[in-house]
Amino acid sequence: MSPAIPPPQPPRSAAQARDQTDRELIALLQANARESTANLARKLGVARTTVVARLARLEADGVLVGYTAKLGSDAADRGVQAFVGITVQPKAGREVVKRLSGLPELRQLASVSGEFDYMALLRAESTMRLDALLDEIGEIDGVIKTTSSVVLALRVDRSA
After folding, report:
1. Which end of the chain is more exposed for a tag (fewer CB within 10 A), N or C?
2. Hey, where are the domains in the chain?
3. pLDDT for 99-117, tens place per residue?
4. Which of 65, 77, 83 has its CA nearest to residue 29?
5. Cα–Cα distance measured from residue 108 to residue 64, given in angstroms and rounded to the nearest whole number
């Protein structure tokens, strides 16, 4: 009788990393994704080959899905960001999402519970462009209303 093959596991999240070393490795990569494996190993107190193996496993498990560059504060401070709550008519969501996805200034779009159907994060080069974007969004068929909050200062940023 052959051994049973275990079913495939869903991708793990960073919170589901296997142990403390995995969590510390993820935190170091979030701080600097370009850190060398030798430096990561030194900071974690493990062998470089251990770091390489853990990175490969975390990537294979879907915990790490990419590495990114983060803009410095000068580049990030240019322009204006706004969170926009969007309420849509019933059954209009798919088309609204399709139209919103075509906006290059759209950074994130999430369906949410509560007062709005969607929450968008926009980045525009000026308040004039943000105003025009809000008009464009309001004119999309199916959009009932938008409520905007302009970002004044970013207090904590843990995004990649």
Report:
1. N
2. 14-60, 73-150
3. 999 998 999 999 999 999 9
4. 65
5. 19
